[in-house]
Design brief:
The chain is α/β, with parallel strands linked by helices. It has 13 helices and 14 strands.
Length: 397
C-alpha cells in the first residue's frame, strides 16, 4: 500500500508520515507544491519529509502554472466570494490535487492523504477534486478521521523524535500563496475583536502617510501582460503588484464568511495583487463589454466563484462557465491606470482600441452626435408596460 500525502512541512503533515506508516503499514510519498507561499526553502521541506520517514519526497514548482492557469481565470471571472474574498486558498487546492494524482500514477499510489480537519472547506476541495480526477483513489484524513489535536500531534512527534520544532506555535492559522494570505483562529474568533497589525504580512498599515504609487496595467483578452509598459508573465505581474499594492495597504479584508460545511467563520485576508488586478479588470470590462453581456456575466462570475469556493473546480458546470467567460474576454484588451494609496486601488484612466465608449455620443458639449429627438418615443415605448399595468390597478381599485 502506498499513500500520497499532501505535504506542507509543518507539524501536522510531518507527523502524518510516521502515523500513516504505523496505522496502515503504508509507504508514504510526500508531495509538496510550491504555489508561491514563500517562507521556508522547499529543499528543506523536501528533506524533512524524508527525515520523517517518507519513502519518496517530491517538490513541484507550480508557481507559473498557478498564476497562469488558476489566478488568471479567477481574474477573468472577477472572482470574489460573497463579493469580497478572492478565493486565495480555494484556488490552490485543485492545483495541489492535480499534482497528487500525478504522483499517485507515477509511484503506484492507491491512497491520498491530507491534513484537513472536518470543520473546514479544504477537505471538500481536496476530495471533490480527487473524485473528479481519479475516483479510484481512496482518501485518508488523519486530523479528521482520527480526531487529532495539536497536543496529540506534539506528543507523537516527540515520541518518534521527528526533526520538527514542536514548540513554535503561531496564535493564528495561516494559509498563503501567490494570490493572497488567509488568517484565522486565535483572538480573531471573537468577531468583536479588530485585527491588529501583527496579523498582517503582505500589506503595510494603510494609515501611514506615504506617496501614492501609479501603475498602468496592460491586458490582452483579459490576461494581464505588462506593467508600466514592461512585458511580464502573470506570475511576475501578481508578484510585483503584491509588493507595490501591499506597500500601500491595499487588499485587507476582514469578513464573516459562509463556509461550505454550514458554519460562519471569521476570516482576515490580504490580497494586494489580486484586489488591484480585479479592480483594473472590472473597469476594462466596463469599457469593452456590451451591456447585456456584462449584466449576464456578473451572474456567471458570482456562480463561478461559488463553484470554486465549494471545491468544484473540475465540475461540468465550471468547465462550461469557463468557456463562456473566455468568449466574453475576446475584446477585453487595453490599459488601465491605477493609483495605489491609502489601502485603495483606484482607477484613474482607461484606454482601449476595443472601447465601446464613444466620446461624441457621451459628450454634452459641442459635437454631440446623440440624436436626442429619438429619446421621447423610446421613453414612451419603454414605459408603456408599466403605464398599462398602472391603469389596470386603478381600474380594479
Amino acid at each position: 500500500m502506498k499513500v500520497v500525502l499532501a505535504y506542507s512541512g509543518g507539524l501536522d503533515t510531518s507527523v502524518a508520515i510516521p502515523f500513516l506508516a504505523d496505522r496502515t503499514g503504508a509507504e508514504v510519498i510526500a508531495v509538496a507544491v510550491d504555489v508561491g507561499q514563500g517562507g521556508e526553502d522547499m529543499k528543506a521541506v523536501q528533506q524533512r519529509a524524508l527525515d520523517c520517514g517518507a519513502v519518496e519526497s517530491v517538490v513541484v514548482d507550480a508557481r507559473e502554472e498557478f498564476a497562469r492557469d488558476f489566478c488568471v481565470p479567477a481574474l477573468q471571472a472577477n472572482a470574489l466570494y460573497m463579493d469580497r474574498y478572492p478565493l486565495v486558498s480555494a484556488l490552490s487546492r485543485p492545483l495541489i490535487v492535480k499534482h497528487l494524482v500525478a504522483a499517485a500514477k507515477e509511484f503506484g499510489g492507491t491512497h491520498v492523504s491530507h491534513g484537513c480537519t472536518g470543520k473546514g472547506n479544504d477537505q471538500v476541495r481536496f476530495e471533490a477534486g480527487l473524485a473528479a480526477l481519479d475516483p479510484e483513489l481512496e482518501v485518508i484524513a488523519p486530523a479528521r478521521d482520527f480526531a487529532w489535536t495539536r497536543d496529540k500531534a506534539i506528543a507523537f512527534a516527540e515520541e518518534k523524535g521527528l526533526p520538527i520544532d514542536v514548540t513554535k506555535k503561531s496564535p493564528y492559522s495561516i494559509d498563503q500563496n501567490l494570490w493572497g494570505r488567509a488568517v484565522e483562529t486565535g483572538f480573531l474568533e471573537d468577531i468583536w475583536n479588530g485585527p491588529i497589525e501583527d496579523v498582517y504580512s503582505y500589506t503595510s498599515d494603510p494609515s501611514v502617510p506615504r506617496e501614492p504609487d501609479k501603475v498602468v496595467i496592460t491586458f490582452v483578452q483579459g490576461v494581464p501582460v505588462a506593467l508600466d509598459g514592461r512585458a511580464l508573465s502573470p506570475l511576475e505581474i501578481v508578484a510585483e503588484l503584491n509588493r507595490r499594492a501591499g506597500a500601500q495597504g491595499v487588499g485587507r479584508i476582514d469578513m464573516v464568511e459562509d463556509r461550505l460545511v454550514g458554519i460562519k467563520s471569521r476570516e482576515v485576508y490580504e490580497a494586494p495583487g489580486a484586489i488591484a488586478l480585479i479592480a483594473a479588470h472590472m473597469e476594462l470590462e466596463n469599457v469593452t463589454v456590451e451591456r447585456d453581456l456584462a449584466r449576464f456575466k456578473r451572474s456567471v462570475d458570482q456562480r463561478w466563484g461559488e463553484l470554486v469556493y465549494d471545491g468544484l473546480w473540475f465540475s461540468p458546470l465550471k468547465k462550461s462557465l469557463d468557456a463562456f467567460i473566455a468568449d466574453a474576454q475576446r475584446h477585453v484588451s487595453g490599459e488601465i491606470r491605477l493609483v495605489l494609496h491609502g489601502g485603495k486601488a483606484v482607477v484613474t484612466g482607461r484606454r482601449s482600441d476595443a472601447s465601446l465608449y464613444d466620446f461624441s455620443l457621451a459628450t454634452y458639449d459641442t459635437g454631440d452626435a446623440f440624436d436626442q429627438s429619438l429619446a421621447k418615443g423610446f421613453v414612451q415605448l419603454w414605459s408603456l408596460p408599466s403605464k398599462i399595468a398602472a391603469a389596470r390597478e386603478a381600474r380594479r381599485g
